Amino acid sequence: MKIITVIGARPQFIKAACISRLRPSIVKEIIIHTGQHYDDNMSTVFFKQLHIPEPDYYLNVGSGTHGTQTARMIEGIEKILFNEEPDIVLVYGDTNSTLAGSLAASKLHIPIAHVESGLRSFNKKMPEEINRVITDHLSSLLFCPTHTALDNLKKEGIVSNVHLVGDIMHDSVLYYKTKAHKQSDILTRLNLSAKKFYLTTVHRAENTDDPNRLTSILKTISQLDHDVVFPLHPRTKKQIEKHQLHIYLSSPHIKVTDPLNYLDMLMLESEAKMILTDSGGVQKEAYLFKVPCITLRDETEWIETVTEGWNHVTGVNTQLILNTIDQFKLPPKHPALFGNGRSAEKICQILLEFLKSIKKK
Ligand code: UD1
Ligand code: UDP
């Protein structure tokens, strides 16, 4: 039995590591790295730190417009699928690499398994929303992290081969958090005191490509009352340079870093006083570490974290964010929203059963 895993962006490396670790040995896995993320600190570092097998194919697609980037990926993936003839293609999340893997496989009538299926922001201006809706509708096997995701699929008429398995990033946090505490010296390196700093990440197109929104976010962090760690995504770095917004980051309480490795990131997340982010993964990790979160967007797919009171969706208005931080009350309850940390195990089992069933036909 043969699966082809298509990955290309930072969060996909982290998710794929969980499955690669547990994959049953009778299933051969071939990894295609599209090259969507290519800087060492956005790609190689995760393969090394999380012991992900070297990709069998590297497409070297790089950056570009959505059309160019996705088209290059499809062209490369299609050739490999022709040659390798896998039984299934495994895709993760909602990036252009996810979409390309799904489109290439579906046209060749190869079944698709989608991990992190059913997420919706209901905002079609988000490229990720388009990618995930299309991928879900093309998939033969759908793995949902939450009840909300399951309900979203049901409303779109997708009901067969849909499995609620919990969130694979929870598995990852449980697996690596102790290691992070043992190995990461990031608090010392950045001269931080536990629970006395904010952690901020920003990379969404809606925030980085709109100079007004980006300025508003930077202005806000320049006014925070404790240290702020700000690992800069390359997209954000480029926009800050383009619009000459460094001035907002010049205060010594703002610690700008390059993108961090996973263990340093987990360490910072677990020890932060509060997290301000537009990342999907970081919102979840904040919840898992019981750290209050401010989501710098106008909506979120991880709505349960908001309902439970651990996450406030503020958009980018400075005064609203500062007021929300001031008034944040830690909720008394912290239910297990993302499963029991055994999602990868469940996914592998279901995948194996599915492969056996299609082999019989
Ligand atoms: C992509 C995903 C997004 C995901 C994010 C995770 C899409 C449409 N977006 O966004 O869903 O949340 O990854 O981080 O797939 N760049 C570099 N070096 C790199 C990678 C990117 O310099 O290694 C710069 C380039 O200028 C590029 C820009 O970042 O144009 C954006 O990269 P891209 O992969 O297109 O989108 P992300 O914002 O990273
Ligand atoms: N992450 C990391 N280093 C960083 C920023 C994020 O290791 O400098 C990790 C983070 O802990 C989470 C994942 O990357 O596991 C989230 O990826 P990202 O925010 O790029 O994308 P999203 O989840 O929004 O798609």
UniProtKB/TrEMBL annotation:
Organism classification: Bacteria, Bacillati, Bacillota, Bacilli, Bacillales
UniProt record similarity statement: Belongs to the UDP-N-acetylglucosamine 2-epimerase family.
SUPFAM superfamilies: UDP-Glycosyltransferase/glycogen phosphorylase
UniProt key word Isomerase: yes
Domain UDP-N-acetylglucosamine 2-epimerase: 26-351
Sorted UniProt keywords: Isomerase
Keyword Isomerase assigned: yes
InterPro entries: UDP_GlcNAc_Epimerase_2_dom, WecB-like
Gene3D superfamilies: Glycogen Phosphorylase B
Protein's name in the database: UDP-N-acetylglucosamine 2-epimerase
Record CDD domains: GTB_UDP-GlcNAc_2-Epimerase
